[in-house]
Amino acid sequence: MRALQLVLFVGLPVLALGMPFLYSWQRGAILLVWVRASWGFYARVARSHFPAVDVAISIAGVPLFCWLLVQSWMRHRVSKSVDWKGRSYRTG
Question: Using one digit for the tens of pLDDT, what is the confidence trace for 66-91?
Fold first, then answer.
């Protein structure tokens, strides 16, 4: 789900502003979907009761979280090991 959010946050504005053949209503519809996705993320994070500025910049953590998930999956599935506190454990 977080990877999809990352694609929406980055991809929709690029799609709306980078395609010259779109009509203005199509750009508006794409940007409206982007605003809705952004507001949904903001509302979910706002329930944590952090200050508004922290909630607003939390979107910057989504790419890092996705990278950590991919790295974890690669280490578990490809190298068949998990590292924890300086020790390596075999999986499978």
Answer: 888 888 888 888 888 888 888 888 87
Q: Which residues of 10-27 are buried (b: 16+ CB within 10 A; e: fewer)?
A: eebeebbeeeeeeeeeee
For residue 67, give both structure tokens.
């990278």
Q: Which residue has the higher pLDDT, 85 or 5?
A: 85
CA 76 to chain CA centroid, Å, is: 21
3 contact partners, CB below 8 Å, separation of at least 6: 66, 69
Give this prediction's pTM.
0.62
Pseudo-torsion of CA 8, 9, 10, 16, nearest 10°?
70
